[in-house]
Design brief:
Keywords: Membrane, Transmembrane, Transmembrane helix. This protein is mostly helical and 129 residues long. The protein has one domain. Helix content is 75%, strand content 0%. The protein has helices at 2-18, 22-25, 27-46, 52-71, 80-101, 112-125.
Length: 129
């Protein structure tokens, strides 16, 4: 019981020093992950033959959410190094998830070999390659 009380006091003291609430401060980084993940899946599955403004709108929303996550204070992104790694992980993760979803456009791949072949092509050329 005393350990739990000490942990709570330590957390409260950290909040008072930084002025950042633990739950609210991590909402923007997780929102950025969700937006980028959703966009990657969507454009991996639906980008061939879609409307051009969809991608432009996604880039605008992703830029705003990721920018807010990087610029506003947070407990998880509290150093420049963490912010740089987070940004690189989002960009690389977007292309990997998009390429992972692209082989499912129109139909399921026939085998794992076909899937990984389509994944490689999608990673090299984009989802419509």
């Amino acid at each position: 019981m005393d350990q739990a009380r000490n942990d709570m006091r330590t957390t409260e003291a950290a909040d008072m020093r930084t002025g950042v609430k633990p739950v609210a401060s991590n909402v923007l980084p997780w929102s950025a992950v969700a937006v980028v993940l959703f966009g990657a899946i969507w454009f991996g599955l639906m980008s061939c033959g879609g409307y051009a403004w969809h991608k432009t709108m996604f880039y605008g929303v992703a830029f705003a959410v990721v920018g807010a996550a990087l610029l506003l204070p947070s407990n998880s992104l509290n150093s420049l190094r963490r912010k740089a790694v987070f940004f690189c992980a989002l960009v690389c993760g977007y292309y990997v998830v998009e390429a992972a979803a692209a082989p499912f456009y129109l139909s399921l791949p026939g085998s794992a070999t076909e899937y990984f072949g389509l994944f490689r092509i999608s990673l090299e050329r984009g989802p419509c390659g």
